[in-house]
Amino acid sequence: MRYDGIILDVDGTLWDSTSLVSSAWNRALADSGRPDRHVDSDLLKSLFGKTMKDIMEVILPDEDEDTRDRVSALCFRYENEMLSGDDYDIAYPGVAETIKEMSRHIPFFIVSNCQEGYIEELIRRYSLKDYIKDFEDYGRTGFGKADNIKLLVSRNSLEYPVYVGDTAMDQKACHEAGVPFIFASYGFGTAAEDECDMVIDRFSDLTGLLN
């Protein structure tokens, strides 16, 4: 099938930022008076893909919503500061090169359950401004992934888009949005592979869509 747009997840699909993010969040938790709460890369890998509201319910189950919102805002602030001030290559092999090469034939988009500024940092870090045609995130709309996929598809008049993600949550969102799903098996999560339209073991496998 010839698709007219490839929509990408971020965490576990394009890069692994969990080491940097865990440092930022632990600093935010300590500065918020909760040094007893600690996150690490393994925990974040199990949580990424959820909205921040759902993530904070796991990290701070005994706090009220206002406190969680206050801590999450500090997490985002420290996270964006750390990402923008760090130059380590945290993308999976071939991500930027594959996007730039394939963009000559098919447009790329991004939809993630992240905060505002996160996708922008990825685009800046890997010089993808001319290759990512549009993006949407939970931080900007307050919508879950399925609704943001629908929003982006409608906004860009896509008729045959496909979504690339690495978790069962991504797969469920695609089902709800009526968009085919490609499973990035190298990422953080799992998916029902027999219900996927394609499974890739490395990001560059997406070039098979052009054959």
Mind sketching the topology for me?
Layout lengths: L4 E4 L9 H14 L9 H7 L4 H8 L5 H20 L10 H8 L5 E5 L5 H8 L6 E6 H4 L3 H11 L5 E5 L2 H10 L3 E4 L13 E3 L11
Parallel strand pairs: 1-2, 1-4, 2-3, 4-5, 5-6
Helix pairs in contact: 1-2, 1-4, 3-4, 8-9
Helix content: 40-55%
Tell me how many strands there are: 6
> What is the percentage of strand-forming residues?
5-15%
Unreliable residue stretches: none
Number of helices: 9
Q: Alpha-carbon distance between the termini?
A: 10 Å
Assembly level: single chain
Give the SSE string: EHHHHHEHEHHEHEE
Specify the overall morphology.
globular
Largest sheet: 6 strands, parallel
CA-based gyration radius: 17 Å
- Mean pLDDT across the residues is 94
Widest sheet, order of strands? 3-2-1-4-5-6
Structural class: alpha/beta
Describe this structure in words.
The chain has helices at 18-31, 41-47, 52-59, 65-84, 95-102, 118-125, 138-141, 145-155, 168-177; strands spanning 5-8, 108-112, 132-137, 161-165, 181-184, 198-200. The termini are close together. 39% of the residues are buried. β2, α6 and β3 form a beta-alpha-beta unit. The chain is α/β, with parallel strands linked by helices.
